[in-house]
Amino acid sequence: MISFRYHVVSLCAVVLALALGVVLGASSLSQTMLGALSTDRADLSGQVGTLTAERDTARAEQAAADRVLAGAAPSLVGGTLPGRTVVVVAAPGADPADLEALTGLVGQAGGRVTGSLTLTDAALAPDRADALRGLVTRVLPAGVQLPSTTDAGTLTGALLGSLVTSGRGPTSSPAEIGTAFTALADGGFLAPGAAPAPAQLAVVLAGDAASGPDAAGRATTLAHLAGGVRDGGAGTVLAARSADGAVATARPDQALRGLSTVDGVGTTAGRLAVVLAAAEQAGGRAGAYGASPGVSALPQRTPPPA
Fold first, then answer.
1. Which of 26, 117, 211, 297 is 20 to 30 A distant from 185 in Cα terms?
2. Where is this region: Disordered (predicted)?
């Protein structure tokens, strides 16, 4: 007769066998998975190492090319901006190193940077467009005509173009110019600072391409602002470190075809392109330049306009 104790022992044996099977199976599966993961990790580590080496090589080559171009800069740009004056309009995030390098190259080209304006985030924010549009129309100097549009970027650019331009269109008095700059700064659209002296040419220097839900709106506002500066009286170059953002917005826009664009301004080649593009603007020409596909690396050097 089978005793109760026999049933208990049998049941325990079955449970132990199942547990042992689970443990052994899990161990085997774990070893298999760990082996596969180790192999994948080794493959990924190798790919990361290869990509890191390629990046370092590309950086070294870029640095070498920059050194060569920097040495050749005086001959490449010398005499292209004889006696020309340039103002810089810097967007939020623009690298001060780019402004400093461009100032030096303009000097090597025979020109002079009269100063800079720094836009704030609010100047490009879609939710501040109505406030900016209203302010622009209130501080407009006498005799200055704004374009027939409600686009805040275009209107702001046209106002700035009229304020910083010399030699074209109506000339605003120093008091009117000071009042307008002060109002824009007090409204939070310009960083506080001394107003630049009037100039014949302008460089709108973009920051890093914005991200987020309003990135496209900010890029469009900056592109339109650059076009407005040109329409306001100053031959204008829109320059950025990448071909994204405002530069990408401006290039296919037929309404901005009179605007020159340059990407890669973080490199010596890009900075040289900005100066040569400004010289083209002085001669009434425009183009697209930089390292991105479909554009020329540098503008063709031409004799400066008389």
1. 211
2. 286-306
